[in-house]
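Chapter review: from sequence to fold.
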Amino acid sequence: MPTLTTTVTAAEASGRTTTVTTTVAAPEPAPASSEDGNGITFRYWSCQARGQLARYMLYDSGLQFKEDVVDIVDVFGGGKWPALKEDPTFSGAFGALPTAEQHGEIVNETQACAQFVAEQTGYMPKSAMGRAKVVMIGDHIYEDVIVNIAYCIWEKREWERDCIGGWAGPTSGLPRKYANLEGILAKSTSGFAVGDAISMADFAIYFAVDLMATLLRSAGQESGKTDHVGEQAYQVLIGDKPSLLKHYAMIAARPNLVAHRSTPEWKDYSRYLTGKGAFGEGTVEGGMGATEKTHWCILADKLVKAYAAAAEAE
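The token string follows.
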């Protein structure tokens, strides 16, 4: 079987770099989907948010599937969504996206879709405890990282109270969650989050770090400064976590993910975490509040200040 080799380098806060070279067997193509619905159809909006974890696993696995990227500006902004929401063949029993469909049956809900895909792609451990740990990590990231950031971007939650901080203090939100993930990986002898093989948990961690390495890190880069606020925020949140950086580089080097991230689809929906991002400045004009891009700058600024305040309090 042919092999593919990819090298990815991740920067650390100290200025050093972590370089991971991965050589893996090129995956054999899965049998083609038949026309009677035996293949998976995964449907989600043209953003990352609730659909990206499942997408990563589907693309990485080499499984043949159909991706239905729903243009949020056209469908939601164009007034087509109310009718599609009530169409169970499009948006499932719960009238929401994402959906995963196979054999004519449709699953709703983010985590249910992700776990279904993980089962289909072989990214769930065999043991009950292993599976529970994978779900634990996935829920931790989805509920305490992704959802909180998304709701703050939509201005339904508050950055300090609901995302960066929490009941345990001003840095008990995002800073604590990423520290938790660092702790899990630091104890791993295999490099993977659970056991000795890649699982849904690894793709969830990769997703959580990639958001910070791309959307957060680019916040404020228009200033032209090398130490713009996004870079500062990324370094205080991720830069001192060598296990997360090494893991991020390892997953990023997987050939099918490298290929996926060069596609037009990826370049389209990777620009935004939420559907709000696709509307750009139109969110201000449409009464939806500040743009997603503005909110990444707000998060970056607040993270830097929260870490500075915590350091002063020590």
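Two observations follow directly from the output. The domain at 3-313 is CATH 1.20.1050.130 (Glutathione S-transferase Yfyf (Class Pi); Chain A, domain 2). Strands lie at 3-11, 17-25, 40-45, 65-70, 99-102, 105-107.
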